[in-house]
Each structure stands twice: as C-alpha cells, then as structure tokens.
Amino acid sequence: MKKLIYYVSLGMLLITFNSCEKESLNVSSNSAPNKEVSSSKLSNDDNGNLCHNGVTINVNKHSIKSHMSHDDIVGSCEEPLKDDFWFSKIGLSSVIRNKDNSQYTNLFFMDMENSIREEFESITSDEYLFHNKKIGFAFQSKLDSKRVLVITPNGKGFNEVIITEGNTNIELRNLKEDFIIIPKDSSPVLRCSDLGPRSGDETFGDCFSRNWNNFCCDFIGCAAQIGSGHAVAVGIGLACL
Amino acid sequence: MLSNKLMLLFGFFLGTSLIIVGSILKIYGSNFSVTFLIIGLALCIKIPIYFLIKYRKSIFEFFRK
Question: The domain containing residue B47 runs over which residues?
C-alpha cells in the first residue's frame, strides 16, 4: 500500500512538472517582447562575420564548419579585427598546434619589423586550426610561451595578429592596425541547443565531449550527470554511435 | 515474494536503464527526457537512502566520536 501511494504521488509530481514546463514554453513563445529580446541576444552572441569570395557575410556560428570547407576566412574582408566575437573564440579555444614543416615561411616575414622577425621567425610553422579546419599559420614566440603570431589569408593579403594570453585577458595586436584586449571567459556557457547526435564528419570523441560538456545545461541534466554519471555516459555514447 | 535487496538491485538496474534512455532522448531534444531522468534518478537514489536508514545508528555513532 505504501509503495502504491509512493508511485502515485511520484506520477502526479511528474505530470505537474511537465505541464508547468509546457506552460512556461507557451508563455515565452506567445509573448512578443520576450521573443524579440531572446532573438536579438542570439544574433549578438551567435553570429559572426566571414569573408566569402571577397564579400563579408554574417553567419550563425553553427554553420561555420560548412563555410570553412569552402575556404572562407574568419572576420570581415575589410576590417577583420573589428569582429571581437570571432577573434575571442580563436584566441581562447583554437590555438591547437600541429607541427608542419614549410619551406615558404620566410615569405611571411619579408615585410615585418626586425624585432618581430627575431621573436617569431622560424622555418617551421604550426597549423592554426578553427573547428578542426586549418585556416592559417601560427608561429610560437621564442621569448614567451604565451605569445603566438597568427597569419591568416584574408582574400587580399594576410592578417598578422599577435595573440598574447594573460591571466585575465587575451590581447590581440594586429601588426597593421591597432590592438584590442578581450577578457577571458572563465565560465563557458552551456547550451542545451548544442546537444545533438553525431554530425557528418564529427568524430565519436568530439561528439561525446560536446554532449558531455553541455549535458549540465539545465537542472535535471545536471542532477542526472552528478547522480548517475555512468548511465548518462552510456546514453551519450549510444547517441553518438 | 522478492527480498528487499533483490528489489533494490532490480530498481537500480531499471533506474540506470531509464537514465540511459532519458539521456538519449535529451540529446535528441525530446521533452519526455525529463520524465525518464526523474524516475530513473528516483529509483537509483533509493539505494543510498536505504543503506542510510538501515545503518543510521552506526553512522551517528561514527560522527559522535
């Protein structure tokens, strides 16, 4: 009898919870001002400029991968450094280095100042990756391990940017223009919209880490991950197969 | 009639299965995932609560010292 009462009360609790969730969804979709606020927030946070065949286009970050396969360049064609969002993402998450011997690296340094040549010039360059796609070259500083010179083609020539990683911020200095400082984001935003099965060329590991890192995007996801992580891991693994 | 421990073991496996299904549904964006995850967690959490109640005297004595 006690068990029956327990299960009935649990079932009622669940029904109440689900209906509350549906009501809150309906309210947010029906009220126009809320919708506008959320959409403008999305466009600010999730969109960035790409240089596509010499023309600047504004795209959502989720479509960046497909654009990169067409050799598009991050940033606008005219003023690539003005787009803080994309450069902050590059500076924070995508300085992944794979050694790549190149016999043409001296061409990059032909017009540069002597101080920069002395600090960065090398016959070996690193691949500069963004979303696992090579978009340029990176040269590690010989003086400071937290300084990298990044050279990316922009359709007309090259963007030459020195990325210096500090304790609280990242400094991006364009050799041809000015420099900007971007605060480090120590707490990455978790999004339920980033959850999903494996896409076309994504590896199992990437899919698993993406879903695992974003699973705690709401209360119940967090509770499940903390309370029964092994079962959640199995579920994510099956979804990513 | 199944013994208490066997029921707990059965509940644990059922709870784990529900959490696995709930996780897959959550990844695919279904709202039913909430229901599966809550029931699964409730079943899995029963085990530590059971042992906490069963050995409460020993636990209290351990912390008194």
Answer: 4-64
Q: Please name the member of B17, B19, B35 whose beta carbon is closest to the beta carbon of A14.
A: B35
Count of structural domains within chain A: 3
**A49 plus A31 within the same structural domain:** no
- In sequence order, what are the residues at sequence separation of 6 or more whose Cβ sits closer than 8 angstroms to the Cβ of residue A51? A72, A73, A74, A75, A76, A77, A80, A154, A155
Quote the domain boundaries for residue A28: 2-42
Q: Tens of pLDDT along A144-196?
A: 877 888 887 666 667 787 877 776 666 767 776 655 555 555 556 677 877 88
Residue of B nearest to A214 (CA): B27
Residue B4 near chain A (CB below 8 Å): no
**C-alpha separations of A121 from A143, A147, A164 in Å:** 12, 13, 17
The separation between CA A123 and the C-alpha centre of its own chain, rounded to angstroms, equals 30
ipTM of the complex: 0.76
DSSP string, A128-151: EEETTEEEEEEEE-SS-TTEEEEE
- Is B40 close to A224, i.e. CB distance below 8 A? yes
* CB of A149 closer than 8 Å to CB of A160: yes
Q: Which residues in A lie closer than 8 A to residue B15 (C-beta atoms)?
A: 228, 231
